[in-house]
Amino acid sequence: MKTRKGLSSVVGTVFAIIALASVVTYVTYSLDILDKFNQGVLARNEETLDRGKEQFDILSATIDNNKFNITISNTGTLPINITKMWVENKSATDWVNSYDIKKAVAPDGILTKIGQSSSLYANTANAYNIKLITERGNTKEFSVNSGITAPLYMQLHAIPSAISDEFTTTLLFEVVNNMSSNDLLLNLTPDMQYTPTAGVTKIVEPLSSYPSLSKGDTAYFKWVYKIAGNVDDTFTFTARLANGYPGNTASATVTLTEVQFAAESATSIQSQGFTCCKTADNIIVMHQEDTVDTPGTSYQMYSAEVENTGVTIDLQSASPQIFFTYNDTETRTVPDGLWTLALRYRSSMWPDALQSVPTLNTMIFHFNDTSDSSGNGNILTLVNNPSYSAAGVHGNSGIYTFDGIDDYMTIPVNANNDIRTSPDSTAAWFKTGPANPSSDMVIFRAERPASANYYEIVINNLGKLVFRFTTDGGGTITDCASTTDVADGNWHHFAAVRYAGKSCRLYIDAVRHEQEVDGFAGTPTMIATSAATIGRNQSGVSYFNGQIDYFMHWNEYALQAIADLGTRDEVLALYNANYGNAAHSVDINVDITDKNGAAFIPPKIVHAKIKADLPYSDSKGSLTTYPGPKNYTFSTTPDTIFNPQERMKATVSWNPTNVGAVDMFWRIDDSTFSDKKGSFMQVPTPDIGFPSYFVYDTTKDLIFTVTNIGPEGIWLTYSGTKVIFKGITDPLKSYAGVLLAGNGSSINADKDTIYVKLYAKIDLKFWKPKKIPNNSQTCEGLGQECIIPGLYRMYINVIGYDDTGLTILKTFPIGPVRVI
Amino acid sequence: MNTYSMHSKKGLSTVVTGAIMLSAVAVLGTMVVAWSNTNLFANQQSLEASFSAKYNKINEFIIIENVWFRQMPTKAVNITINNAGTVGLNVTQIKLADSSNVFTKSITNGGIAPGKSFDDEIPFAWTNNIPVDITVTTGRGSIFTTQELPP
Asked: pTM for the whole thing?
């Protein structure tokens, strides 16, 4: 039994081994299959990755000897095998063929002469679309001879578009590859047609073709033509690409005009707004803009003409006044030499102590001329030529010298001088000729002959000054005389006051010499009927021998002196007042500060002057007139250096010397000033102009406003109207922008601005300034390089024509500007 | 004596029983092995078929290397397909569609060896500047698409 059982076990075991072996074999087979599958997946992934790494560029594509000659560059990291080239003849219908290439190129290598061995006969007159196929299945498509697959953005500019007979015009053809596909355009060949053809002579033609134009790039072609014909002849130029997209053209028209030079057009334009005109680099104009890029509430100061509504500064009330130049990153050197602070202001008629004195019924003669400085319109008539000289009692205030023989002046009688009712006052400076006059010498006299009434100031034969008047025909003569001899050949000031009907006070050199009271009954009236005289009386005698200055008369006002129970010392203020070289006393400081306006330690002082004298500026009574600038001059040595970020600070502070200080009303940034400067600092010409406060923020629109000042209405043209930025930070970088819109209306090569009527304004908006100016705001891609931040010198060039057909040309230099 | 008689009967029974057992083991063993081989073979066949289908499908890759739009005499689309994969494939269907038309063409002779190309012209009323979607389907169910813009 044991033996038989063992045999069965052996047989069973054999079967079990067989079954087990089958299972093991199956499992092994399955794993092998899985491994093969994995290997397949990995290989597939690798092929996909390699396909993505495969890159090549078309370097050139030409037709040589009627065969394509294509050069490519392998810019990827894997070898590339070009297997096939598809060619579509766009100049024929349904003509497509493929050609085997089978050429390999290593990474970073160049493969040339693709297509030279193909059987294709290529015609240079035809346009082709070509596609290269790689072994991995990548393709690269491009066009030869034109971008024919879609219309391209084209513009044709005629610069200028209006010329004279036998003059030249430049035709600039602009082609942008704006196709939606990524096709590379190769060998763009321009074609120019024009009508009529007679009279047109080509002077310069562009390159025969443009080698390569990627998507977003711009190609330019330039022709220069000389055109002959008659006035008003028009020539239409049409540019296209050879074998380009049907109907894809650009046109421009050139018109012959009589005008050969812009100077022949009398119509002109001027800039307006913040971006006003540049002054010379050595003229730094004071502007009214404050708190904008200036420290504190100080004003701006830079080299640009006045352009604002103007601000009047009452320096006595608002002092000090501070102006800053801007700061930037440049170093400036101002050579040694003369600096001039030129201030535009009007002086007050008299010191502030006389602020209650009315200007009505008043005469003021400073004797700088024959007109009345009170604004009341009185005119001196000089008889027998009293001689004028500038050497007045206070500097160049002007005086008249009377010869004591026949010189005198008359003033038509009127409410300013007819001594009608009290009070009245008269004041002047005088200097007698002879030490002892033989008889009365009249300084001023008014009279009413019919009633023998008069009012006069004379020097009597004792050398005393006498103020006397009568309103009752001589019944009562009120007179006040000086207690001292004033005919001593020296300057003296008198103030004669008729403070009541028959009462007077006389002040000599601000000291009261006499007061007379002849009664206060009523207000006796004289009412002169004869012309008032200076230098003699109305009877033709008593000529004055000597000099007179600063003559003033108040027909209905009594000057006050505190000593005589007045509330103001007006007499003393008049005595101290200066209407000559030293009318105003101010402190003037020019410093260099840091960018925040803070002084350095130790301070960098360019100039410091305490109580500088400024001359009288006579507005003749007008409160809105500011005569030409008065100068304060100083010199500096050695050179003045402004380091990067430093500013020039100019400070003017009110600092009167006495109670006679005459206030000054300083006017800045008034665009009505004919010199377009107003108040400014003139410095020795710096090596680099001081920065303007104009900042062009490249994220915002660039808008420039001009005004048509006539005499004709105008249009401005797209062609030639430009904004130009010349690099200062980097002199090699300059940019320009073309016109985008005028008063919000778009402008292009086919459309000029709206009609700008006489005295109308137009806002000119420009496209972003670029290295290659174009009508696009984008800055991406070749040829779209926009202006970069930095310091530039800015110009606006405006071209247009007026409604009489004449050409307008104008360049506005804006000066150094910051671009941010 | 009695013992001898008894021994003689027990010996016959043992032989018969042993033969039966041996036969049973052999029959059962043979059945198990046969069943096992049959089953494993069936699974192997299935695995091989599945592997082949998946593996080949993965390695299928075509490029629509050129499409051009015929204008005359009637509008049509000429398509060139290149087998850039490592296995042969069979193009069974090409479908064209733009914003207004859809056309599907069944292909009966679309076999392409690796590295070889297949051309076909499909009548289709394309419209200028209206994109056309092109879908190519293979026998293994792979789908390849591209889009072309008629001139």
From this structure: 0.52
